[in-house]
Amino acid sequence: MQKGGTSMKLIIAAAIVIFSVIKYFSSSEVNEITGEKQYISLTKEDEIAMGINSAPQMAQEFGGLSRNAQYQELVKRVGAKVVNNSDAHKTNYPFQFYVLADNRTVNAFALPGGPIFITEALLTRLQNEDQLAGVLGHEVGHVIARHSAEQMSKQELSQGISGAAGVAAGDANSAYYAQVVANMVNMKYGRDDELESDDLGVRFMIQAGYNPEALIGVMDILEEASGGSQVPEFQSTHPSPSNRREKIKAAIEKYRNQ
Ligand SMILES: [Zn+2]
C-alpha cells in the first residue's frame, strides 16, 4: 500500500512536470524586434492590460508621481522621441513615460506593455538629454524584449516543477531546493535581460539621433549613486557596471556599422 502510494505520487509528479514543460514550449513565438524565439504564455494584450492596471500601484510605491511639470514634460518628450524615431515604434505597445516623486531611490523601471518610470533621484543626477534617452531606451528595451512576460512564463514553468518535486518527496525540503533552483534560473536570465536591454537601448538611441556613448555615462552615475555596490533596478541579478560598459561599447560598434 505504502509502495503503491509512492509510485502514484511519482506519476502525478511526472505528469505535472510534463504538463508544465509542454505548456511552456508550445507557447513559442519570434520577437519582431529582437528576432529571438521566446516562450511566453501571456498575449501582448494581457501584458498591456497588466501594465496599465498595475501602474498606479507601482507609482504609489515610490511616493506617487512627481509634481514637477517640467520633469514630466521632459521625460515624455525624450521618451516619445526615442520610441517614434526607432524600431520601437514598430511594436504597438502604448508607451507612457512618468517621473516618480521619490528623490532618494536612484531607479528606473518598466512595467509589461509600456508604462515606464524614472525617479526624481535618477533624473536629477543625469547630466544631459542623451543620458536620459539612454535610461528610457534601456527601459523601452525591457518592454519590447518582453522580459517580464518571459519571466512570468518561466515562473509558471518552475512553479509546476517545484510543486511536483514537493509532491514526489512528500516534504518541504525538496520544494525549497526546487525553488532555489527556479530562482537561479530566473537570476541567470535576469543578467542576460539587462545586457539585451542595454543593447536595444543603444540601437534605439542611434536610430533616434542620440549619442549612444551617453549610456556609458549612465553606468558611472549608477555606480557612484550606489557607492560602488549595486543600485535597485541594477540589483543582485544585474551584471557589474564594468561588464555592462564593455557590452555597451560593443553594441555601439555593431549598430554604428549597420
Ligand atoms: Zn534594466
TrEMBL record:
One of its GO terms (biological process) is proteolysis involved in protein catabolic process. One of its GO terms (molecular function) is metal ion binding. Keywords: Hydrolase, Metal-binding, Metalloprotease, Protease, Zinc. The keyword Zinc applies. Residues 72-250 form the Peptidase M48 domain. Residues 228-242 have a biased composition (Polar residues). It comes from the Bacteria. Its cofactor is Zn(2+). The keyword Zinc applies. Residues 228-247 are annotated as: Disordered. Binds 1 zinc ion per subunit. GO terms for cellular component: membrane. PANTHER family: METALLOENDOPEPTIDASE OMA1, METALLOENDOPEPTIDASE OMA1, MITOCHONDRIAL. Belongs to the peptidase M48 family. This is M48 family peptidase. It comes from Empedobacter tilapiae.
